[in-house]
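notes to self, project folder thing:

trying the whole complex as one job this time. last attempt i did each chain seperately and stitching them together was a nightmare. two parts in total, labels are on each line so i dont mix them up again. if this works i'll redo the older ones the same way
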Amino acid sequence: MTENHTTSKQPGILTPLQRLQEKFSDKIIESHVFRGDETAVIGLLNLRSVARFLKETPEMDFNFLMDLTAVDYLFYTGGRVQKEFRFEVVYHFFSLKFNKRIRIKVPVDEKNPQVDTLSDLWASANWYEREVWDMFGIQFKGHPNLKRILMYDQFEGHALRKDYPFNKRQPLIGPIN
Amino acid sequence: MTQRRSMLLNVGPSHPAMHGVIRIIMELDGEKIKGADVEIGYLHRAFEKMCETVMYSQCFPYTDRLNYVSPLINNAGFALAVEKLLGIDIPERAQYIRVIMSEISRVTDHLTCIGATAMEMGAMTAFLYMIKAREFLYELIEEITGARLTISYVRIGGVKADLTQGFADRAFQKIAKVRKVLIEADEMLTRNRIFSDRMKDIGKISPEDAIAYGITGPFLRSTGVSYDVRKASPYLIYDKLEFEVPLGSKGDNLDRYFVRMAEMEQSLRIIEQCFVQIPDGEIACGLTGEVIPAAQMVDRAKMGETEELIEDEVALDPTLQGSTRKYHDAIYAHKKDVVLPAKENTYGNIEGLMNHFKLVMYGHGIQPPVGETYFPVEGANGELGFYIVSDGRDQPWRVRVHPPCFAIMAALPKCLIGGMMADLIPTFGSVNMIAGELDR
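result (full assembly):
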């Protein structure tokens, strides 16, 4: 999974990941480039400072939060190392000016699934975070309106968690007869 | 002393203009919209969850049902994401076919969007004209894929079957007909006073807001921001084609209409170029024998007559035409662990049959390496991205779709607030909300 992450197509110009490594060398837990996708794994507490850096640095200018989702690694057996934390919240940023993408992953513990919100920095985070809360039960601290978005309010559990059976039904009304 | 109070008005989900799947709760002051709350999820079918329970190749029928107006783009997007994960390239002809089919789908999508918007504003004639043009294109899609909506045409590593004989000529005829309809629709709508009055300066959004909400596609381009995945990070063979990215300036409904109209013309241009550039599909592979029905070939192979069958061609069901050995190499990547073998091999010899079984049995199938990829394509509504996490098994660990509608729907209150209640209909129409991909 981990390929070398020092190569750059244009010598002299740093990739977003390299810039990030330069600035937050001690805060990046792991980084890799797989099939050209640059990924950095950072700690929960550094999310907002990294996100701010990505958005506000003129040489980075990641003005799009293109996608925000989460992955549940319960029962995960792929890869060489077992995952330490159950969830990973995955952010896909895109810079329109430089036409660059970067993926930031934040491992989240099962016992206290809570991440800082980015909805004040990118408006698009608002609904995406609601969806992650709905599907994975990960809370976003400081979110203005954290309620379910795809499922109904009475729904119990979080559907995309790996311990939620895909064929489990929760009808709101019982059978007619 | 009178007290001014605002009124809450509920629109949908069972409201014809909301397509039966969206609920908007509006706070009104007279007829002015003061606040709006959008509720989605009425068409949630657990796409992402279901993809985790099936093999990679079995996800295609699910992707058909994301944006059901342009399913070929979803098919191609998912296939490209898995191919990126696998690290394989597909033959040039297959790439051209994917582009042709994607662009046909883009035109059908835009036609539906504009037609439906016009209809919701009372212009039934324009709608019928647009649907007539869409029908021409659906006939083309039907000819190649055997279906109109739920096509499942693209395969990982290629496409299901080659184009039919003489398809290019028929496509050119249909394109000419579509162009004619577009001119007629343009005459009916663009200078129509009622239409332009209800579209102009309505549902405005600024480029800054559009970017903040992560909006892409025609909606973003109508604000004057030039971002098209086909230009920004060309996939397939888009870098070999000449086309323009139409831009608006004001970000209102009328601009979105113009952008879509102009984009359709560009898509038709792309299709025409593809037919000129596309490499030949038929390959000389020594099929000099007779053409025999599939059942007969299977029977003879069971009897052990495999050597006599080497040069024979199999007669297939019309929907599988173009997947025989003659065409196989031009439309499928040359990877035995990813693509199904040519039908002559499946029916005529044990090696091909085993290869086929290995790819369709649970626990065997396509097994990408451990890793994760995100692949964006330009859907009809904007950037359609597939984020796939693989744990090395034949089933994806996680499939995430980045649906272009989702960001636009999140920004819908921004477009509505300050406008009149009746503006809801054209604005919502210009979003081109497709609940299949919005709710997944």
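what i see at first glance: The longest strand of chain A covers residues 64-72.
need to look closer tmrw
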